[in-house]
Structures are given as structure tokens and as C-alpha cells.
Design goal:
alpha/beta, 60s Ribosomal Protein L30, Chain: A, Alpha/beta knot, six-stranded parallel β-sheet, four-stranded mixed β-sheet, 10 strands, elongated
């Protein structure tokens, strides 16, 4: 289940409604008018969702003083997917999965979900413990992708790797601990990319199970990319190969 009952940000709420999430109530800032708010109001009326206009202090309280953009919604909990069910429903010649090994920053998590949805990822797999929560910040940063891309929580990522390999999915670790470039790896077959945590990278026990390891070339003086940026580059290399 989701870690929060409030989401904020106009786009995130719009995407939640479009994805069929159960919205209990939407709170809007008194006097606010713009195109996104107009689109949100249309969806509120079309779906008969309860709403009210409130002062900014109410929105600040509901969003815990985050950038709510004049809109906060109370939602029913998001259900996570059972991994075996997810794989059975999505496995194909072009299946693409993303495993996140203890990504701890909620904004990185949200940004990764947004990119994964845009890149056509079939499912994102995260550990039950040790990773960022799917809270309001993550949902807002995902621009609503958290409601449209299947997310599975598992007790151990190792078990997820074994299951995917048994289904013929190639496990590719994105890591600097290799001499091989990601651009030299065939990513056209069923593939699962693994991204490691911001500080420690991919856990050694998981790294050892990878079928391939690929790094992104770093041509400047800084030793690493932000994990959400690295994930985006890696996912779009998959997209590039499959569109070629």
C-alpha cells in the first residue's frame, strides 16, 4: 500500500484521476486560474469528485509546506503488484523491467518513475525495506507516473532477479565496476536494468548475478551521474536500440 493519503501538484492529481485512482476529495487554492487547473476542474466535474476551494494555509498544511501548485488531493491507497503476476502479464519479446536497489531519495525515485513510464518500462521492482517510500514528494516528482506504471515491492531483490532470469529476462547492471560500455550490450531482448543506490551502488550479491554489466562513459571531472539521470540515459539506450 502507498505510504501517504495526500498527493499534491496539479499534474500529479490529473494523472491520478486519468489512471482511475479513487480520489476522495480535491482541495484547490481560492482564486487560482490557469490551464492545468482548468483541466483538473473539468476532470473533477466529469468524475463527480468532491472538491472545495480553500486558503493557502490549508494547502500548506496538507502538503506539509511543499510546492503544491494550488492543488492537493486525498486519495485511496495505491496497490502494488505481485511480481509473478506482473511478469506473467507483461512478458514478451520486448519486455523491459527496472530494478531499483535501495534508491533512498524520494525525488530520485519519482523522477525515475516518470522516465520509466515515458520509456515504456513494463514494471518497476523495489525492495520492501531500505528504499525510498512512495510518498507525496515522490508522486509529485513522478508527474503522476506512479499511478500508471506497475510497481512491485519484493522482500528480496535477489529473488526477483532469479525469477526474471527463469523467465528468460536478461539482467543488466548499470555500474561503474566494469570495463564494458552499456552501448556495447544487446538490449533488444527481454531485459531488466538494475540501478544501485545513490551512495553504495548495486549490492555485491545482486551485482554478481547480473548477466551483463554496463557503464556510462564519463568524460568530465565528476566521478558519477545522479542516479535518476543515469537511469534515464540507460533506459533511452534501450529505446534507441529497439527503435533502430
Amino acid at each position: 500500500m502507498q505510504d501517504t493519503s495526500n498527493i499534491f501538484g496539479t499534474r500529479a492529481i490529473i494523472e491520478a484521476i486519468k489512471a482511475g485512482q479513487t480520489i476522495q476529495k480535491v482541495y484547490l487554492l481560492k482564486g487560482i486560474t490557469n490551464s492545468l487547473i482548468g483541466e483538473l476542474n473539468t476532470l473533477i466535474k466529469k468524475n463527480a469528485i468532491s472538491s472545495s476551494y480553500v486558503p493557502v494555509e490549508k494547502l500548506d498544511h496538507l502538503s506539509k509546506f511543499q510546492n503544491h501548485q494550488g492543488a492537493v488531493a486525498k486519495i485511496s491507497a495505491v496497490e502494488f503488484y505481485d511480481l509473478e503476476t506482473l511478469v506473467n502479464e507483461t512478458k514478451s519479446k520486448s519486455a523491459l523491467y527496472l530494478l531499483l536497489d535501495q534508491i533512498t531519495d524520494v525525488r530520485n525515485f519519482g523522477a525515475i518513475l516518470r522516465t520509466a513510464e515515458c520509456a515504456g518500462v513494463d514494471g518497476v521492482i523495489v525492495p520492501q525495506q531500505g528504499g525510498a517510500s512512495l510518498n507525496a514528494d515522490a508522486i509529485k516528482t513522478s508527474a503522476g507516473a506512479a499511478f500508471t506504471i506497475p510497481i512491485s515491492k519484493v522482500n528480496h531483490l535477489l529473488d526477483a532477479v532469479y525469477l526474471l532470469q527463469a523467465e528468460g529476462v536478461k539482467i543488466v547492471a548499470i555500474t561503474e565496476k566494469t570495463d564494458q560500455s552499456i552501448y556495447d550490450i544487446d538490449l533488444t531482448q527481454p531485459t531488466a536494468l538494475i540501478m544501485g543506490s545513490e551512495h553504495k551502488g548495486i549490492t555485491n550479491s545482486i551485482l554478481k548475478l547480473a548477466d551483463s554489466k554496463g557503464k556510462l562513459p564519463l568524460l568530465g571531472d565528476i566521478a558519477s551521474l545522479n542516479v535518476s539521470v543515469a537511469c534515464g540515459v540507460a533506459l533511452y539506450e534501450v529505446v534507441r536500440q529497439r527503435l533502430s
